[in-house]
Amino acid sequence: MTEHEVKKIVAEAVAETLLTLGIDTSDPVELQKDMAHLRSWRESVATVKQQGLIAATGVITVGLLGLLWLAFKGSP
Question: What's the pLDDT tens digit per position in 38-70?
């Protein structure tokens, strides 16, 4: 078996596998755009998660400080 034949078999196997996974390899530019969109979506989700954790930490901190303030203010 020649190197060219091996490369052809591998290329066909990869294309078939990707097609089975639902990835159309006939237009690589569109595939790259899809992957860029997925990356953008993933980064957006990570940003929202991070901002949510920061907001939750802020709410808890303010609540605890308010509780302490009320405890000190209430004592004579």
Answer: 999 999 999 999 999 999 999 999 999 999 999
Collect all residues with Cβ–Cβ distance below 8 Å to 31 and sequence separation of at least 6.
Answer: 23, 24, 25
Domain tally, the chain: 1
Q: What is the pLDDT of residues 18-42, one digit of tens each?
A: 999 988 888 889 989 999 999 999 9
What's this model's pTM, rounded to 2 decimal places?
A: 0.61
Q: Which domain holds residue 67?
A: 3-74
Residue 48 carries which side chain, given as an amino acid letter? Answer: V
Phi and psi at 45, nearest 5°, equal -65, -40
Which helix (H) or strand (E) segment holds residue 10: the answer is: helix 3-20
